[in-house]
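hiii, so i know i said id send this last week but things got crazy w the move. better late than never?? heres the sequnce for the chain we talked about at the cafe, plus the structure i predicted for it. fair warning i was half asleep when i ran it
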Amino acid sequence: MSHPQEMPSLLFADGDGNIVDLPDLQAAGMAGGIFRRPELEDFIPLPEGSELFVLPDRQPVGYDPQSHEPLLLEDDPYKPGNRVQAVGAFMAPAHTAIFSSAYVTRHGAPTLPLFAYTAVGWYAGKFWVTGFRSDLDVRQDCTHFDQHTVERKTKIRLKQKKDNRLIQHLGKCCLTYGCPAARNYFLDRWEAPLPTSPQCNARCVGCISLQESGCCPSTQDRITFIPTPKEISSMAVPHLQHADKAIVSFGQGCEGEPLLQADTIERSVRLIRKETSRGTINLNSNASLPKAVARIADAGLDSIRVSLNSVQEEKYNLYYRPNGYQFEAVKESIRVMKAKGRFVSLNYFILPGFTDSTEEFEALRNFIDELEPNFIQLRNLNMDPEWYLSVIKHKKDKTPLGIRTWFEQLRKTFPTLQFGYFNPSLDGLAEV
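okay and structure toks below
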């Protein structure tokens, strides 16, 4: 992994929105609301396909190499008296943050949109971020998408499949939102999405498809209909039959909780498996209905990805705000899948300073010991960090492990546990 030879310098946005570096200060990071000085090993070049964001009404914080302390940048050193704003990086998929962007929020600042904000600096003519590549799978790398090809193939299929509402919905996901999973479906490769449910039995604070009025906007529209088993199977079967490392996944960012449509999914899975035994059928879920999970598993479901912001019940409830189920049901769904010999992943949202806090780490170790998941997906939490910490009533931990140490200790403690970012194709994986 490439690292800078010297500490990257602080970046800030000037009054015109231009991103500028300040060599006198080094890039700092933030973990759980506490400013940190990254190590050289924490930095990698900004991955291709990432984006930089100006963070409104957030004053940048750098690290002063003279005083060895964090330093607030209150105005523009090149244009004294002009206000400055912090900068954060939204890393491309398959990368996990080590530190969040460091800043102090002004009074009355708007809530940040639903993205992750990684610390970023400047060195030797390029941007550097505090993160690491957590999955070598290239399925969502921007270099593997040619927009002209995507548009051409999508429009052809949409014309061919006018009567399939699910495929038409995915056409919007592909062409309007640039959803990588939808794009891969139209390119006939890897993982394809099967959104199914307009409803949800949780009210996640950071939901990307439905937000309360007056909050930050959702990043995409939720599906408004329930596709039929025939619509689902007629889309999924050809993909599973022909795609390389083929996966189809219920439970997408453009829907609610798929288990609320368990009957439809169960019938769909049976139809799919009647036609083909190839590929992986996966369910991304909050795992709130273990009896429904059991039925779908019996129909032929291969794997489940259980979304978790925390394995502490109190923190989980504060974020998910479950409606009609309890945290124990989530654990029971994992037990059900394991008892049937199926593959279990945790979609574990990462926020530096909370995820690697001593309390959460101990809870996670106990959770893994008890339930024995096969795989953990290291997904960055897409939410304003200060808002999130407030929601879950996080008490600052001045001695978190650090994300790199946290990861190393997990791998040492659980040597058979697998890690990544995406839903794995079960072809070629070790026996569960």
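btw The chain has a mean pLDDT of 94. thought thatd interest u
miss u guys!!
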